[in-house]
Task: structure prediction
Amino acid sequence: MGYSYDHENIFAKILRGEIPNDTVYEDDFALAFRDIQPQAPAHVLVIPKGPYVTYDHFANEATDAEIIGYTRAIGKVCALLGVAPGHEGAGYRAIANSGNDGVQEVPHLHVHILAGRPLGRMLQRAD
Ligand code: 5GP
Result:
């Protein structure tokens, strides 16, 4: 399928410890840290530790253990943030921008977890 991963992207540098981050959660499969430019009271990025560019790259090529581990990490982050609707929180939005039309800036898979205020409708027109 021809996915190409840039090992010098900023999240790769964060994973190698070359750039500091405000860690919320970490395990063998995932790192979660606060977005440097938060767009909601809670804005956390959850990234897999493996070299995957987009969600489809990860879904197609990651091992079962990586997929389970990463998905469980997203659940743990929602619990840590206290945002799971119907439980302790009022809800959240999970976003994985991918590629040009998805306006992905950093080419390492990341799921944004946004919460802490009403987030409006899912999409606004780009034009
Ligand atoms: P994208 O548009 O790729 O989905 O979002 C990339 C996100 O990464 C943006 O929300 C941006 O604020 C965040 N970001 C970019 N560089 C850094 C960084 O060095 N540290 C942290 N914590 N977040 C970053």
User: Anything to note?
Assistant: The chain has a mean pLDDT of 95. The first strand starts at residue 23 and ends at 26. The chain is about 25% helix and 20% strand.
